[in-house]
Amino acid sequence: MWCRNLTLRGDLMKTLILVDLQNDFMPGGALAVPGGHEVLPVANAIQRCFDIVIATADWHPPGHGSFASAHPGARVGQLIELAGMPQMLWPDHCVQNTSGAELSPGLDVARITKIIYKGMDPNVDSYSGFFDNGRQRSTGLEDYLRSRGVDAIYVMGLATDYCVKFTALDGVALGLTTYLIEDGCRGVDVVPGDAIRAVSEMRAAGVHVISSRQLDVSGGARRGIPEGVPGGAPRE
Ligand code: VGL
Ligand code: ZN
């Protein structure tokens, strides 16, 4: 028994959503998230605890409207208006078919059955794995989950304060039982404290904040944490 049968309400089809574990969000990448690589062992260890494993990928065309470089005179970190919505400007990142947009080579991809691409519209950013920021278009993630009878999603990845947060909030809004695997996330913290505030926001919205140790018994042992009772109740 390797995976604790973590069920809050008898969730039947558990899906792990690995958010944006792409080279550009790893140290050395174009939009490096501090400690981003530290979540890869977590992702690899817990995949076997899930019925379905999905990855999302930020997948921008060159010159995407979220890139500071697309707006003459603008700077990274500046807030502008894009298609009528507030938009933070980023360095060029996750450009389609570049190495920066590839999933990290440190991620075990063998059990990933679907990659959800987002952020393709040059004028609309898409932090959530479900919808663009204007909630005008869906990515297909909801349909994929519904068609497979998924009732619980477990979200982890990068970045806590952007794509993880909006994916988890949309999960709750769509009526899915939604968990955040907190140690499987890292934030960009454009403003210090953003990642911590994002976790509070998710919790307040009804996201169940858990640790990977509550899922993966062997991983807990590997990290020197005493093994729990398989099937034991989660501590929140
Ligand atoms: C992300 C900023 C811009 C993310 C994507 O994956 O959290 N953040 N694009
Ligand atoms: Zn992006």
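^ zinc ion complex. The domain at 15-214 is CATH 3.40.50.850 (Rossmann fold). Residues 220-236 have pLDDT under 50 and may be disordered.
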